[in-house]
Design goal:
binds pyridoxal-5'-phosphate, 13 helices, Aspartate Aminotransferase, domain 2, single chain, 421 residues, alpha/beta
Amino acid sequence: MMDLSQIQQKDEKDPLLKFKTRFFHPENELYFDGNSLGKLPLKSKKMLNEIIQNQWGERLIRSWNENWLFLPKRIASKYAQLLGTENGEICIGESTSVRLYQILYALLSSNLFHKNLTTDILNFPTDLYIIEGLKKAFQIPQITVVKYPNEIEADIEILKNSIKENPGIICLSMVSYKSAFFYPVQLLNRWAAKYNSIIVWDLSHAVGAVAINLKVAEVKIALGCTYKYMNGGPGAPAFLFVNNDLQPNLFNPIQGWFGHHRPFDFNMNFIPADGIDRFASGTPSVLSIAGIEAGIDLVLEAGIEEIRLKSTSQSDFFLKAAEEELIPIGFSIESPIDPNQRGSHVTLSHSASWQICQALMAGSKSYPKIIPDYRPPYFIRFGITPLYTSYEDIWILVNTLKTIVTKKAYLNFCSKKKNVT
Ligand SMILES: Cc1ncc(COP(=O)(O)O)c(C=O)c1O
């Protein structure tokens, strides 16, 4: 592995280094969990304080017209810029799970596609649960969960074959939460379209992590959370993209007043709003929506192409160091090696991974606290977040993992996991 001075030179040359100071950092702690919950942008703290004090405190109900009614749209247009879509194709609000239920329900009711629901084994559990629920609601005899020879990457031929055999509605995570596998999005969309099928893409682990232009990739529907690489805060609302051409034929199953054509007429008959607005239901959660604006602003300012370049360079550096220093002491790599097939986290496994995670989080006199992301049974995910991860952070991480294992420091920790996170 390179020595520390070489690593520090890499940091000095990094055009994104300056963004690190735009976030809050607890002392003596390295954070590798931006793939679960991103750090707090300093500007979010300021903006939320001002909204609470002035807009909520002073202006009260007047703030709806002055600021809040337009807030979700303003942020949606920033997400449109990031994802290469038009304005009026993205809306903000609700959780990813609720958005997924809403849009799959709308698709199943539309009769635009066969009522076959497919997902794969790499998808995040909530997506599977939502699909299971819809299977019951629509009395669909069975759903397809495509399996592959391993859980690191999708076998694209197996997936394509499944779409051909069972055309309909397919839900996939663009970047898998387990291994960070990044699907060939355009290729699969074209294949799906050929069989009159649609892929609903969950971008939770992709947005802010990979450079994706939804139009170029021929995505028709996508959604995702904003609290990971977008640094929108705990439980931050999701975004939903519905391509213009599909909007007139899709209807929100939760037809609340905010999705009405003219909500403030208080008409007793429901007439859906035109376009993406029909996917609103109730009053927007102003504070949590406001909390995501500083995060998207930072990503737009840094530029997603630049972020992606640094992410692949840092992940490659980490993987190379892992091969040299960590595989010989019992670790395995559980992420794709090819950067074109990988998002922005790197997954390792070890037979003592839970004990190693606890040792990392506890820190010691010779190394800082390091926050990783444990996933049972043996996986440790490390989120590479180019806006605040430095090469030196990764260098310290690799050396700390090596010390914990070679000095057997992990044996001081319990092998059974008790708490929920
Ligand atoms: C791919 C994916 N989809 C959905 C979710 C959950 O989203 P929410 O809690 O906003 O419903 C997560 C959470 O980590 C996720 O990784």
